[in-house]
Amino acid sequence: MLSHHWQNIMHRVLSSQCGLCRFPIQATAQPNALRWCDHCYQYLTPVKRCQRCGLSLKAEEANIESICGECLSEPPPWQRLFTLGDYDFPLSREVQRFKDHGQTWHIRALTQLLAQRISTPAPLITTVPLHWQRYLYRGFNQSNILARHLAGHLNVRFDNHVFRRVKHAQSQRGNKKSSRELNLKGAFTLNQPPKYNHVAIVDDVVTTGSTVRQLCHLLLEVGVETVDIYCICRTPAPGAI
Prior knowledge:
Elements: H1 4-13, H2 38-41, H3 59-62, H4 69-73, E1 80-86, H5 91-99, H6 107-115, E2 124-127, H7 132-138, H8 142-154, E3 157-158, E4 163-165, H9 177-184, E5 188-190, E6 198-206, H10 210-221, E7 226-234
Parallel strand pairs: 1-7, 2-3, 2-6, 6-7
Antiparallel strand pairs: 4-5
Keywords: Glycosyltransferase, Transferase
Domain Phosphoribosyltransferase: 145-237
GO molecular function: glycosyltransferase activity
């Protein structure tokens, strides 16, 4: 695995190529933080999403609503969810390069783009904690890296010690919502109540929301009034893609 230093050098050397399709970037292209060509950058065009769950709104909802029908009838414990896009190509590949292979050169750009979509930032950003066994295996907590960059872009405080993971749960990949919630029951505890009424939780991908739901309840139980979720990707509803 290349060190972060050499990753950055290689990125600068190849910066005349699109970071996604690898074709040369035209001189007339609009500059962007990811150094993608105009065609590839269109993948990140924002779509109308539910402000609560972050899922794409149906065509009939997008014209008149900002919150989907499911969240109106049964709202999640968080107030807003901000994301760059669906967990689909190309964002899914960018997350996998980071999470599974430790490639970080593109994280500053991704978090900068996400920060631009956050209208009213929480004064405190925290993260989903890893169990120590998972941390030793991977060598880093991807949520901490994302949150540290986001806090810098948004000029807010970052604290990765708000929560502690006390139960080693199996990987959540491929699990249904009910299995995820059972798997995570009792997995987290609060180290100490935050001194802020508005807190944001950062994760790389929100799938069913089971993980952040557990953390939200811990915050709300100690008097936090508003919790937001910041994530790179939101897994779309079944059949949406």
